[in-house]
Amino acid sequence: MKAPVLEIKNFHVDYGLGDEAVQAVRDVTLTLHRGEVLGLAGESGSGKSTLAYGVTRLLPPPGVISGGSVVYHPASGDPYDVMALTDAELRAFRWAETSIVFQGAMNSLNPVHKVSTQMLDVIKAHEPQLSPQARIARAQEMLKLVGISADRMDAYPHQLSGGMRQRVMIGMALVLEPQVVIMDEPTTALDVVMQRQILAQLVELRERLGFSVLFITHDLSLLVEFSDRIAIMYGGRIVEEARSKDLYTDSLHPYSEGLLKSFPALRGERRELSGIPGSPPDLRGMPTGCSFHPRCPQAFDRCSTEIPVLGIPSARNDPHRSVACWLPGRTA
Amino acid sequence: MKFLLQRLVFYVFTAWAALTINFFIPRMIPGDPVTSLINKFQGQMSTDAINSLYVLFGLDKNASLWSQYVDYWGQVFRGDLGLSFTFFPTPVAEILRQSLPWTIALVGITTFASFMIGTSLGVLAGWRRGSVMDGLLPVTTFLSSIPYFWLGLLAITLLAGPDSFFPSSGGYEPGLVPSWNAEFIGSAVQHSLLPAITILISSVSGWILTMRNMMVTVASEDYITVAHAKGLPERRVMVSYAARNALLPNVSGFALSLGFIVGGTLLVEIVFSYPGIGYNLFQAVGAKDYPLMQGVFLVITLSVLVANLLADVAYLLLDPRTRKEG
Lengths: 332, 326
What we know:
The complex is a heterodimer.
Chain A: E1 4-15, E2 22-33, E3 37-41, H1 48-55, E4 63-72, E5 80-81, H2 87-93, E6 98-101, H3 115-126, H4 132-145, H5 162-174, E7 180-184, H6 192-209, E8 212-217, H7 220-226, E9 229-234, E10 237-243, H8 244-249, H9 254-260, E11 322-323
Chain B: H1 2-28, H2 33-40, H3 47-56, H4 65-78, H5 92-127, H6 132-135, H7 137-144, H8 148-159, H9 182-219, H10 222-229, H11 234-264, H12 266-271, H13 277-286, H14 290-318
Helix pairs in contact in B: 1-14, 5-9, 5-11, 5-14, 7-9, 8-9, 9-11, 10-11, 11-14, 13-14
């Protein structure tokens, strides 16, 4: 197994404080390895974006990280806990080590500053020793890598199309050559053709620059094709984690199965699309036991009383998989 | 550039319309200014004098309305705004030339200072929501609801007096002759302190409130989160990303208030008997001094238009989205 680069351990995020608090992310343990693409999928409200914001300590109030650690392994030097960094250390860590591409490509760029200003200020903040010419050269090179011509540096965001803006954001995310890039639904606002182009480019760039990606989306079909491993989130918890191929052909959690059955396969025989009955759980009043049990077609008595623990499935004996489900052959 | 030309054409048209209205209004008001002047001299005027007054005021009964209108424009372009009744026979242009610097100095500087102070405080209050700064908001809201003539009267009652440092009225020590020397300037500053503070207190809170609210709105934009995620220094995110964008709506507000510098301070100048243009207007209204009123209105109209033009230019510079391509 490859070396880890980002280890999220027993991570908890609440919205609000005290009794009123809503637990959006509960006890998430997830490891991102060097050079891999880890997909994180789930319905709206499952806590996947909250996890991304929490890991980078960008949660807007009233979001509170109520427990857990995020251990980052730098390219050289000892690993450290991101949660324990001081403000100055955190600023230095952000973008240089872990950058983020956000969901809203349209609003991620400041409308009143030129693309160049927004790209150069991040280089200036992290590498002040670099000369202005070198900064410009670096920014132009990065834009070229994502398919934006250098003369677009002087454009304002409103002069670019949605796809171009997201390319600029990806270029900006890579400009300091971070080890980890978190992508929070980066292509959701784009049409499928543009989506495909940008993802293909991302794969190419990853091979070239060797960064790891935490890819967050609700589009499981996209992940199956594009990521190395997939983690499925439901109600703030990880319910299943496996290599993409395994998850696609042999999912163990009924929720993963439901997600997979809700989009058509491109190849192979036709099958019934079923979807998942019911709606995502209300975080203020989570069901007891497994939070998926009210919607689960295979639920039985134990599901409503005990919370299943994420672990290696007893029927598969594969250290690369884990699942949290009481069905026979799943949680040991 | 094309946008600016379009605006310029629009402003020229507006100026024409405003000046035309300015020409017609006194002529539609019942009674006429000469009659009131005759009353002032209590009938001790010959018929010839009266006739020549009519000609002098541009109210020559023999001339057609059109030729009066043409003459009026000629006068406006020559800067000849007629003679004032109150200060007869001083030309209105001369009175305005004397009073305008007072108003611009007092209200101009305080408006600018109020905008700068209010905006900066608003930025801080909006950025650190829930902090001590934010707790001051109810106080500022209270202050902004106080009309400033009342605040002025209060200030005079409490602070000004025979033994006080603050004079209660006028623009400078009565014995002094206006000139650029230390004594006169010192006296002018001393006289302007109380009205300036009054204006500042009652207007600064408006800027704080609007800026603070815009900051709160802008702070939740995605690009602010991105700026944080980029690891930029807090100060840069606050100034260059948040405040820079939050400022835009305030700029047009500022331009409007620049336009009202001349007209809007009537009350302050009355309360403090300040020798500015608002006080002139007050005297003109009291004495039915139509030429002076017309002159003051002309200045107000033009200053509002110029302020708006400045706002357009500022907007072009600050917001790239308003610049049209080509």
